[in-house]
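Here is an idea for our session: we take a single protein and study its fold together. Start from the sequence, derive the backbone structure tokens from it, and show both lines together. Once you have written the record down, we can walk along the chain together:
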Amino acid sequence: MEINILTKTCIGAAFEVHSQLGPGLLESAYKECLFHKLRKTGLNVQKEIPVPLVFEEVYLECGYRIDILVENQLVLEIKSVEQIHPIYLAQLLTYLRVGKYHLGLLMNFNVLHLKEGIKRVIY
């Protein structure tokens, strides 16, 4: 699927989840609901994908995980926080770099209007 259509589909699903649930829930609730919503569309969706780190030719399993990976090309990092800190963007960029992905969406569901909580990140 073309990446812009895929991105639009994911954002649309996130808007539906947010409009039904509203702000104030835990990150895990939004992640599970968005995962469910995206799977219903027929997309190839995976959650909690391990992100290994290779340091000096040593493979390290450090516990880093991509929240949701859509069609093996779009990384969704889900948050439910008061505000987006630069470290969250750095985290998403790291997942993109290490996983060799090119596009990610940082989605903060703890906002009144979800459009204010979505950041598109290109690597």
Notes: DSSP finds three helices and seven strands in the chain. The CA atoms of residues 44 and 71 lie 5 Å apart.
